[in-house]
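Anyone up for a design puzzle?
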């Protein structure tokens, strides 16, 4: 079963910082606010889907990332979670990355093809509390074939019906 939603703790002190970061970073991916209670929680949802990303002020207050340190150095003391957002294009990966850096994220892997699998294009940033956030466009040949299969089958069915239909009425 797919995951329904993810919720990250921000700690009370960092809630506004994290909320503002994610509103800016997820905007290029089409996310909107689903529900929020200022200072307590916020739920966000992509277009045509349910709310799947949440922040809540629970948990302890963490020290924000230090922009003077590299991602690797920040991860030694901060890295808590990894969340990957599935996006529709390489352009959306690039837009996510640009928005994340502009919003205060720390580069943890610029946009590019990854060796994990052929067709895996992703970018990684650390959010203000050191969570590793990824935008990924995974579009291998086999997946493109699966996505195209219904159209190809309908086209073949239309040709077959047209061929036999013309013969029947001739």
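Challenge accepted. My sequence:
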């Amino acid at each position: 079963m797919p995951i329904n939603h993810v919720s990250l703790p921000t700690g009370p002190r960092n809630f506004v910082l994290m909320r503002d970061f994610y509103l800016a970073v997820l905007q290029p991916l089409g996310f909107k606010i689903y529900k929020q209670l200022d200072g307590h929680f916020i739920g966000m949802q992509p277009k045509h889907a349910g709310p799947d990303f949440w922040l809540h002020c629970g948990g302890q207050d963490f020290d924000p990332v230090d922009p003077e340190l590299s991602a690797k150095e920040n991860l030694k003391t901060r890295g808590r979670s990894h969340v990957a957002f599935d996006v529709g294009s390489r352009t959306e990966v690039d837009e996510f990355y640009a928005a994340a850096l502009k919003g205060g994220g720390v580069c943890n892997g610029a946009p590019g093809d990854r060796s994990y699998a052929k067709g895996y294009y992703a970018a990684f940033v650390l959010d203000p509390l050191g969570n590793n956030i990824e935008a990924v466009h995974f579009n291998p040949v086999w997946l493109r074939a699966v996505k195209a299969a219904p159209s190809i089958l309908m086209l073949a069915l239309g040709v077959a019906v047209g061929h036999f239909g013309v013969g029947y009425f001739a």
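A detail worth pointing out: The longest helix spans residues 141-169.
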